[in-house]
Design brief:
The complex is a heterodimer of chains A (117) and B (115).
Chain A lengths: L3 E2 L4 E5 L4 E3 L2 E2 L6 E8 L6 E7 L7 E2 L2 E6 L4 E6 L8 E9 L9 E2 L3 E6 L1
Parallel strand pairs in A: 2-12
Antiparallel strand pairs in A: 1-4, 3-9, 5-6, 5-10, 7-8, 8-9, 10-11, 10-12
Chain B lengths: L3 E4 L2 E4 L5 E7 L5 E8 L3 E10 L2 E4 L7 E3 L5 E6 L8 E8 L10 E2 L3 E5 L1
Parallel strand pairs in B: 2-11
Antiparallel strand pairs in B: 1-3, 3-8, 4-5, 4-9, 5-6, 7-8, 9-10, 9-11
The chains are: A mainly beta (117), B mainly beta (115).
Chain lengths: 117, 115
């Protein structure tokens, strides 16, 4: 079964508007972390934001925020005030198990965001 | 610091040929990973290493071998390339720390085409 599901293959957003990228996850482990990475057209993977399963508050990092709904197993990324440079593919990923010592990440299929001027 | 570097950036192989992809990191990270990225499938873990001299299989290890003879290097080998191995390969590294987030740092990727 897929551990990370991103149901939006592509999205368009107007410059300066906000956009929400969906991510749902599947795990039975009570201890896990959720990550979002950005991949621009140049190909590199850029770490954006992280949410731990025990974190009480939603993570924020500049214009990025994570809408974490633990009961629904969702960790949606919100990008506020979109800029042309935000056009990229965005990946949601999960690491399970604080006791695990391999730190493996499971990735979703990604969502392509195109920001329109 | 160069971070994580990968060699080569591009490569075209014929079916049956062999090659080695090199990943190097200068951050003194214990953990290193090899992923492949295919359209519509995100990144999938091929092999990983939790320290010098140790390797383990990931989600899609068949057709690949790895070695971690030095802490800073992680090699991915294809003994007999197949068209199904056409992909973009990413190397990543992270520190040995159970405390989150402990994010992975990625290299720029290697685009491999097998004809």
């Amino acid at each position: 079964a897929q551990k990370i599901t991103q149901t939006q293959p592509g999205m368009f957003v107007q410059e300066k508007e906000a956009v929400t990228l969906d991510c749902t996850y599947d795990t039975s482990d009570p201890s896990y972390g959720l990550f979002w990475y950005k991949q621009p057209s140049s190909g590199e993977m850029i770490f954006l934001i992280y949410q731990g399963s025990y974190d009480q508050q939603n993570a924020t990092e500049g214009r990025y925020s994570l809408n974490f709904q633990k009961a629904r197993k969702s960790a949606n990324l919100v990008i506020s005030a979109s800029q042309l440079g935000d056009s990229a593919m965005y990946f949601c990923a999960m690491r399970e198990g604080l006791k695990s010592n391999d730190y493996k990440l499971s990735f979703g299929a990604g969502t392509t965001v195109t920001v329109r001027a | 610091n160069a971070g994580v570097t990968q060699t080569p950036k591009f490569r075209v192989l014929k079916t049956g040929q062999s090659m080695t992809l090199l990943c190097a990191q200068d951050m003194n990270h214990e953990y290193m990973y090899w992923y492949r990225q295919d359209p519509g499938m995100g990144l999938r873990l091929i092999h990983y290493s939790v320290g010098e001299g140790t390797t383990a299989k990931g989600e899609v290890p068949d057709g690949y071998n790895v070695s971690r003879l030095k802490k800073q290097n992680f090699l991915l080998g294809l003994e007999s390339a197949a068209p199904s191995q056409t992909s973009v390969y990413f190397c990543a590294s992270s520190i040995h720390d159970r405390v989150f987030p402990n994010e992975q740092f990625f290299g720029p990727g290697t685009r491999l085409t097998v004809l």
